[in-house]
Amino acid sequence: MDEKTTKDVKAEDFGMGDDAQAQGQPQAPKINNYARDIKPSAQTSTEKPQVDPKDNPPPVTSNTQPAQSSQSTASATPTNSSPSPSTSATTSSPQATGKTIGQVKSGKTLPPPMDPAKKKKVVLGCLGGFGSIMLIFLGIAFLFISQSDETTTNPIAKLLNLNQASFINGLITFIHLIFILVSLTVFVFTMVGVFKASMAKKDDKDAKRAGLKMSMISGIILVIVFFVWAFVYFYLDGKRINVQTADIAPIITEPEDTLNLTAPVDIRFDASNVPVDQRKFQIISYDWNFGDKSTGTSQIVSHTFEEKGRYDVVLKVTKIDKKTGEETVDSYTVIVSIQNEALSAIIEADPQSGPAPLKVKLDGGKSEDPDGTIKTYEWDLDEDGEFDDGTGKTVEKEFTKIGKYKVSLRVVSSTEEFDIAEKEIIVEQAKLPEAKIEITDNPTAFTTGVEYIFKSASTSPNGSIEKYEWDFGDGSKPEATKTVSHTFTKEGTFDVTLKVIDEKEEEAQTLMSITVGSPQGTPKAKIETDPVYTAGTINLEGEVPFIVAFDASGSTDSDNNIVDYAWDFDDDAKNDKFSAKTTYTFTLEGTYTVRLSVTDADENVGTASVIIKVKAQGIKANLQADKIEGSIPLTVKFDASGSSYQNGQITSYQWDFGDGGKPKVGSAKISHKYTEIGTYTAAVTAIGGDNSRSTAQIIITVREIPLTACFVSVFEEGKAPLKTTFDPGCSTGTAVKYFWDFGDGQNSTEVNPTHVYESAGDYTATLEIADADNTVSSASLKITVTAE
Questions:
Q1: Which of 526, 592, 706, 719 sits in a 20 to 30 Å window from 660, CA-based?
Q2: What pLDDT, in 10s, does the model give residues 738-766?
């Protein structure tokens, strides 16, 4: 090989063509340039093609026929270099074999590039295979899920050492992950199609169409996947199995510990955590049995246990299967243990509120210690926190200033336990009575000569109204009764004043202005009765003999010249009496219409009527007692023989003595003993043969036996030393304390003391006794001791 041939070969090895030399453009050496194959000399031309190497880079070729055919276009194009004759004639050169210098040196041949169509088929095949596997998995998973529930265990779950809930819920989660992966993949293809369509050249319609087609198909597939996923989501959500947390009890209590409690105690029970699958079952009811004959029906209930003992609180939850409608009952139990009953302090105040000064009696007698006895009662009445203002079950306190006061009671048991109760006493400002005037029939106009009835509707918070003072302002004499009638004799405006005074001498006054005019027209008849006939009622009723007083003086006339009053009592159209006021006795049973005719001087007549219903005299009970008060025990003789029944016969008497005993049927005379202090309402009901009844009552007051000290001595005189014993057995009342003063400087608190008088002399022995309220009584006895 000559120098020229060697030069040409080296130039070819580095990819340097004659064009580059001819143009005088230096090129960097390209080592192992696999992108350029040197064609056999038979295909080359001695002429250099006028082609820019930048626009048409040399194609990569191989000695295989498929590659050459796929690059037929490139092979037809002349190469940029013109190999020398010596090179084309050399059979051992790289150009003659179709290999690069690197291939010749290594002895290896590169594989040909893959056909894009085949590459696409491979990708689609992989995706299809993956999709088939996913579909098979989805089918198997759906089969497992559809045929599983919380009561069975899948063999695969058992093999994997998983509980049924974890296995099924895991499959559901994995199915959702598959749908997420598929959705993301289809979304990527959709975006790739959009990208291709947007990046294609304006004149490349095929590329743009292909991109849009890919994007549209992928988008449709994505929407279908979303719809299928939504259906699968709702189906699988109903197949999930609830996993009950092991450490959460089905019934939560407050307090949490229900053992060794002290009564009374309020416990809150909450059944919100009962293990019921809400998707499969619907709860119908909650039924609680607290073990003390009390029940409840809510999901959350509270109950107070009052006494010691063990209580098995049972909850029964009734549920119904949503698919089958079958009802089942689940039971849950909570044990409540009450070991003690608390000491309880209770205050009763009488009264608890009122105007100043307010005297209040405080009673702690209802305090109780179920497990022992109360040893002391201690009161704090001045809110200083010290229980030093009183002892005993009851105390009294007077509050003189307006305000709210807190009184406290501390009770201490024999075991030194204590409890404190509080009560609020409200002292109000003293209220004055309220004066109020009412006028019968509420007239809208007032005329002279007409009698109007004025009534006091006054009230007082301090008690009853005891005095009334009326002043009509027309110069008439003042009146001092609760109800008065008044006739204005002259026209004008008058101030009617009412002043009232209650039982505590508190006063109040009110004023009503009345304008009085002259009457005109026909007389207006008005009937008033005694007994009172109330306007608007149907009739006035009474029993034979029924005596009624009639008064027509309230009739009015515009000219004030009424000259005649006529009464018809027996409804026979004949006048019976002729005066403004009269009395009539109805002696026969029946209904009568009493008519009044009022005539004035002008012969104008006004009428009014009232219906009187007279009934036969019925049964009437009468009760008398030989005594209505006395000391305990009190025996009272009752007498109901004065009862009467004009048109019938009394057959029995039913007695109720008011002391809690059952009513008894007895004779007209009976005796009863009251053994407890108090005020009792004794009543007798006279019963007729026709079962008609009438009741009469009487009040019986039973007082305690008065506390009276009395005692005797075994010896009232004798020689010194004189030993004697004192006995207070003749005392009356309930004495709880005894104090003896023997008159010689010695004393004792025994009930029956024995005492020795050592020296001669006269001694006065004195006994003082006291009851629970510290009421005291004393008695004395002279003891004479003579010398030995």
A1: 706
A2: 999 999 999 999 999 999 999 999 999 99
